[in-house]
Amino acid sequence: MSRRDEIIVVRSLAESDLGIFSAHRLSATSKQRAIALTTPVARKLLSPRLYENGGAVMDLICVYGGYGNRELRNIGKVGKNWRLGGRKITASACAFLDSKDFVLLRSGAGNDGDHPILMTFIGRQRERLLHAGIVASLAAEFRDSVAAVVAGSDAFVALSAAFPSVPADLAVGAPLADDEPTVPEQTAGSNGR
Length: 193
Fold this sequence. Notes:
This protein is of the alpha+beta class. The chain has one domain (3-163): At1g16640 B3 domain (Beta Barrel). Helix content is 19%, strand content 28%. It is built from five helices and eight strands, in the order ββααβββββαβαα. It has helices at 39-45, 48-52, 128-138, 154-162, 168-171; strands spanning 6-12, 35-37, 55-64, 67-78, 81-84, 102-108, 117-122, 146-150. The protein has an eight-stranded mixed beta sheet. A hairpin with a 2-residue loop joins strand 3 (55-64) and strand 4.
């Protein structure tokens, strides 16, 4: 996958998306346990084959504030809506996330499952300046709380500086379906702040 084929999807989290985080499950107003995506974004993110098949289980690497996890997650169509689902995200740092914070997905455009998708979060409490920059620079790009920026655009260049692509040594070898996360929730010396 060349850099020109990459996209970064930015989703402004809704209250209904927060159920994917273990820290929010008790207070979540929705029973939804997934992050909503839009049809236009699913069409850009997935290959035509996967899009037409209603999605697939994808290799996803989640990193946020000392938390790292790699597992297979479903990106699929549920009724008329597209969702990024899977097991709950247990990172204690995610307790600080709220609606209107952002989830970022970085992937090759038209991903056929051959490359992992990288996911992170940008929260108003912990990443104030970056959050404000996304709001200011992508305000016109958001459609139904989701924007997709493509490689070569000014927005992609700016987001790439804070959200680099999957390193080659992580991109090799997808996790097995029943693998437990192998990266500890907190790295040495990190208190999650």
